Amino acid sequence: MGVESEGLRPTSVMIVDDQRYARLGLALMIRKAPDLHVVAEAGDGQEALEALERLNRSTGLPDVVLMDVRMPGMDGISATRAVARRFPTVKVLVLTTYDQDEFAFGALSAGASGFLLKDTRTAELHQALRAVSSGDAILTPRITRQMLNQHMTRRAVTPEQRDARRR
User: Fold this and answer.
1) pTM, to two decimals
2) Which of 53, 92, 141, 167 has the smallest number of Cβ neighbours within 10 A?
3) CA torsion, ordered 55, 60, 62, 68, to nearest 10 deg
4) What is the DSSP string of 86-154?
5) Which pLDDT does position 163 carry in this prediction?
6) How far apart are CA 158 and CA 40, in angstroms?
7) Kind of pairing, strands 138-139 and 114-117?
């Protein structure tokens, strides 16, 4: 039985992380799913862009780039911005150890389709890659809660209420 007969569309993934063993571990996690395929790896944002250019000229672009945030050279947020601009069909899922709002909001503002922490379980990573590939957005639960809280606060407070709080 093939991937399509199981109702799963094959998804190609590129892993971008400056730590070689992190890339290896992520690749092993991804390869546990029959419908997910690692097609390229890179050690920083610049390498990722160069690899995407090569893939674009040869075998085709990946569906999803799994991107670390903090890397030497070109960081993940700058690389995400460049990927979104140069390769608009490629989705970026940021996966990082840093649970910091500025990384999450920076990545999303740069064009990422999702933000997860590296302690994500294998099945959750598989689900996130599939969801992002199909056009959905994925956020780690804490970031989702913060975004909802910020949005709800802005909508609930009228200009008059805001002025009254300042006094």
Assistant:
1) 0.81
2) 167
3) 10
4) H-TTSEEEEEES---HHHHHHHHHHT-SEEEETT--HHHHHHHHHHHHTT--EE-HHHHHHHHHHHHHH
5) 66
6) 49
7) parallel
b/e sequence 36-63, b meaning 16+ C-beta within 10 Å: bebbbbbbbbbbbbebbeebeeeeebbb
Exposure pattern of 79-98 as b/e (b: 16+ CB <10 Å)?
bbbbbbeebeebbbbbbbee
Q: What would the pLDDT profile of 35-68 be if each residue is shown by its tens digit?
A: 999 999 999 999 999 999 999 999 999 999 999 9
Asked if residues 83 and 74 have their Cβ atoms less than 8 Å apart, the reply is no
**Cα distance between residue 120 and residue 118, in whole Å:** 5
Q: pLDDT of 112-129, one tens digit each? A: 998 888 888 999 999 999
Band the pLDDT of 5: cuts 50, 70, 90: very low
Other C-beta atoms within 10 Å of 76: how many?
29
* Pair of tokens at residue 30: 């991804």
Tokens matching residue 64: 């999803």
* Average pLDDT of the residues in 73-85: 94
Question: Which amino acid, one-letter code, is at 3?
Answer: V
